[in-house]
Amino acid sequence: MLMSGLMIFNAHPRLYWGEYGANPDPAWLEIGSKGREGYLRVADIRMTTTGTLGLWKDSRGRLNSRAFPDWATIPSTYSLALSRRWHLTFAWLFAVGVGVYGLWSLMNGHFRRDLLPRLSELSPAHLWRDIKRHATLNFPKGAAALSYNTLQKLSYIGVFLMLTVLVLTGLTMSPAVDAIWPWLLDLFGGRQSARSIHFIAAVSMVLFLVVHLLMVLLAGPVNEIRSMITGRFRLREEDSQ
User: Fewer CB within 10 Å: C terminus or N terminus of the chain?
Assistant: First the structure.
């Protein structure tokens, strides 16, 4: 979905706020090229990204002026129609999966039991201790490793909310859905605002995934991945003593 979404973004690599947005309108984010230079512009900040974004060479050494390079998109050659088919096909599977997970987690008490932080865990002192432990890679041991710490709880709740935002903003960009649920346009401040929020949420999910995988590698990938699949976390003997 991410890679097909980047190809869709290539069709118009500019983001706006509000109801409308087209080439003459001021964009808050733009990826493009000028002459022999590729650039990324966010508000008034402009960065040269030649070779990565805006202007890059393909496998044959030819210069391309699309926002994202071919290795990052589905399909690799420019096709808005095909990328939309990929994106919309898997978007419905994604939306159904998020909905089922949310309902099941509410029904079996997973949210309340495992993810909802206690008031004492939200105190500044407690949060600062958790931040320092993560920054120094001081991971919980023994019985403490069997439950989520406060930063994990807040992160997972934030991820679920971000997934919900991705689904709702995706629906808001559909004129057919807007005709049925016009309140979505009011909720997100217009179709162009929904597109911007959708992009920001997708980038946030990628950043979370990178940090999440890094923490899994540092904490012990075999045990961590096994616990994700089976739901059982194995304590090492030295941790359980």
Answer: C
In a domain, residue 28? The reply is: yes
Residue 171 falls inside a structural domain: yes
d(CA 191, CA 177): 11
Same domain? For 62 and 175 the reply is: no
Same domain, 133 and 234: yes
Structure tokens at 67: 């926002």
pLDDT tens figures, 119-165 = 888 899 988 988 888 788 777 665 666 678 888 889 889 998 999 99
Q: Give Rg (Cα) of the chain.
A: 21
Q: Which helix (H) or strand (E) holds 96?
A: helix 80-107
Domain boundary among 25, 46, 72: 72
Burial label for 119, CB within 10 Å (0-12, 13-18, 19+), is exposed
50: exposed, middle or buried (Cβ count in 10 Å: 0-12, 13-18, 19+): middle
Final residue before a domain boundary, out of 17, 47, 72:
72
Examine the domain organization and report whether 115 and 234 are in the same domain. yes
Please give the model's pTM, rounded to 2 decimal places. 0.84
Report whether pLDDT(238) > 70: no
Distance CA 212, CA 217 (A): 9
